[in-house]
């Protein structure tokens, strides 16, 4: 599934083949659930194949392989009537009954993880193993019988016959009973409270039993290796099956997502148009729950709607909208259903995004430098068939520099590249670029009332002329005194901006203008002024305006 998302398809025919397979699983709940249940039994078959290839698989791995191959055979039967891509996947599920049968016959049901301590081979698979195991089982009864016999012969009721890996078999006598030890006992080990001995009979039996154990472990290891080599010889078939199961897993995952998310099958073609009705962000809507996400339409094409300039306040949903368009296109070209009421996707050759702010301190790149580098990559590699998403380009530098760069980028894409583009910005001055062929404006609807603003999260045709920055800051919970001061500063900046200049940041509820020139003009009674008085007042106002000019020039770089 990750490979599919990293390498989406470019052929409408190949995309349609996947969509048809997903549609078949969506329509057949019984088959979908059977596939899902069967895949849960399989685990990571490619990882098991890798361990086989490198000679690292143990007996437990072979049992896991057997269970996976049995589940794959069951899935093959479930897909007996499948057509199209599902039918092709069924044919690639190799027949591995020979490997399954051998592992079932040869490997013990609960083998150890290590390979040199026995317990690997199933009872009845090999005569030699069965005979050597019988010797080991007889050893237990021999020890019990020998212990009873030696207690009777020596009169030592606490006498014990035991075994450890260092000293082998022994007869243990407490120090209180050492006087009763027969002469044929040979001392082997001294303990704090006891002595350990051997007899000629016990030594002879020990050699036979230990020899049997060593031979048994060696024989089991050889048989295990032979079984493993049979599995290794089938590695090509196993890998082919693993890849087919991986595709089946991806298709059923897309089908489950489509059912749970109420996705629709997109129409995919080479029309060059991206038309989405009531599209939704597949991740955000999962967090919001049913009905919590506001859907939006999208219409991009190669004619009059190539570049959309999106304006609107922060937090109103511009970035989410652009991301959802990119994700819907990506999902469609993976072969997935999409979160929308309907969608027609003209295949794109690449999706480029310039979203968010970051820096590269190690590489010596500032936020703005990194942003420009990403823009260069987009402008160098995008084609007419590409989808470009650009969010707030130019905000990392001064207002006029950023606005100039953003404007030039839009013009370059619109006139030279022609890629379908969503370009969000707070530079409302850029909305006049809709005079260019293929450029149009979108905005995010906001509802205003005396109590404040409400974001509707609806993307609609048109342009915004207000940024609502102070109001968004209030929604974010900044301290009230800070907000009051922000409004004062904003009013001062707007007053200095000059008549006729378009201001980027406007208030919803403008503060009363208190500039002295404006106040003086408002107080004049024009009907009762003589010509001389009017000239004198005009001279005074001109002098007041001249005092403001130097300050205004010094602020050209700011908002």
UniProtKB/TrEMBL annotation:
Residue span(s) of domain DNA mismatch repair proteins mutS family: 386-402
Organism, as annotated: Ammonifex degensii
Function: This protein is involved in the repair of mismatches in DNA. It is possible that it carries out the mismatch recognition step. This protein has a weak ATPase activity.
Molecular function via GO: ATP binding; ATP-dependent DNA damage sensor activity; mismatched DNA binding
Gene transcribed to yield this protein: mutS
Cellular component annotations (GO), alphabetically ordered: cytosol
Organism superkingdom: Bacteria
Keywords attached to this entry: ATP-binding, Coiled coil, DNA damage, DNA repair, DNA-binding, Nucleotide-binding
UniProt GO BP: mismatch repair
Annotated protein name in UniProt: DNA mismatch repair protein MutS
Transmembrane segments: none
Protein family per UniProt: Belongs to the DNA mismatch repair MutS family.
Coiled-coil boundaries: 65-92
CDD domains on file: ABC_MutS1
């Amino acid at each position: 599934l990750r490979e599919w998302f990293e390498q989406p398809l470019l052929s409408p025919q190949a995309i349609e083949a996947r969509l048809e397979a997903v549609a078949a699983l969506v329509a057949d709940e019984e088959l979908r659930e059977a596939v899902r249940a069967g895949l849960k039994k399989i685990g990571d078959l490619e990882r098991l194949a890798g361990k086989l290839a490198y000679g690292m698989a143990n007996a437990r791995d072979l049992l896991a392989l057997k269970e996976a191959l049995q589940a794959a055979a069951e899935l093959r039967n479930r897909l007996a009537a499948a057509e199209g891509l599902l039918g092709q996947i069924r044919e690639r599920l190799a027949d591995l009954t020979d490997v399954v049968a051998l592992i079932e016959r040869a490997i013990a049901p609960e083998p150890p993880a290590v390979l040199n301590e026995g317990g690997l081979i199933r009872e009845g698979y090999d005569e030699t193993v069965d005979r050597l195991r019988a010797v080991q089982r007889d050893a237990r009864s021999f020890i019990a019988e020998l212990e009873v016999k030696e207690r009777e012969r020596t009169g030592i009721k606490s006498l014990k016959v035991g075994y450890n890996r260092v000293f082998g078999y022994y007869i243990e006598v407490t120090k209180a009973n050492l006087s009763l030890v027969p002469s044929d006992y040979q001392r082997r080990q001294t303990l704090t409270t006891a002595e350990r001995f051997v007899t000629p009979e016990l030594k002879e039996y020990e050699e036979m039993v230990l020899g049997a154990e060593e031979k048994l472990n060696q024989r089991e290891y050889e048989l295990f290796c032979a079984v493993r080599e049979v599995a290794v010889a089938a590695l090509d078939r196993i890998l082919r099956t693993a890849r087919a199961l991986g595709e089946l897993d991806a298709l059923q995952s897309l089908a489950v997502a489509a059912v749970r998310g109420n996705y629709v099958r997109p129409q995919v073609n080479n029309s060059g148009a991206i038309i989405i009705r009531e599209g939704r962000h597949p991740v955000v809507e999962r967090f919001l729950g049913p009905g919590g996400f506001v859907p939006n339409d999208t219409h991009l094409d190669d004619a009059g709607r190539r570049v959309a300039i999106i304006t609107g306040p922060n937090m109103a949903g511009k970035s989410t909208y652009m991301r959802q368009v990119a994700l819907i296109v990506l999902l469609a070209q993976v072969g997935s259903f999409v979160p929308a009421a309907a969608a027609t996707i003209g295949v794109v050759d690449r999706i480029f995004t310039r979203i968010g702010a970051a820096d590269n301190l190690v590489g010596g790149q500032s936020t703005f430098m990194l942003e420009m580098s990403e823009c260069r990559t987009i402008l160098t590699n995008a084609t007419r068939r590409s989808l470009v998403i650009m969010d707030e380009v130019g905000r990392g530098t001064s207002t006029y520099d950023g606005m100039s760069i953003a404007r030039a980028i839009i013009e370059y894409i619109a006139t030279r590249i022609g890629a379908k583009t969503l370009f969000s910005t707070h530079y409302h001055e850029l909305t006049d670029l809709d005079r260019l062929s293929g450029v149009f404006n979108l905005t995010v609807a906001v509802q205003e009332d005396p109590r404040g603003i409400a974001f509707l999260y609806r993307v609609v045709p048109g342009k915004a002329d207000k940024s609502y920055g102070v109001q968004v800051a209030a929604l974010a919970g900044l301290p009230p005194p800070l907000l009051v001061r922000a409004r004062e500063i904003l009013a001062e900046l707007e007053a200095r901006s000059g008549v006729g200049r378009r201001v980027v940041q406007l208030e919803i509820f403008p503060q009363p203008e208190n500039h002295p020139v404006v106040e003086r003009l408002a107080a004049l009674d024009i009907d009762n002024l003589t010509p001389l008085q009017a000239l004198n007042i005009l001279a005074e106002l001109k002098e007041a305006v001249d005092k403001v000019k130097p300050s205004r020039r010094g602020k050209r770089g700011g908002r």
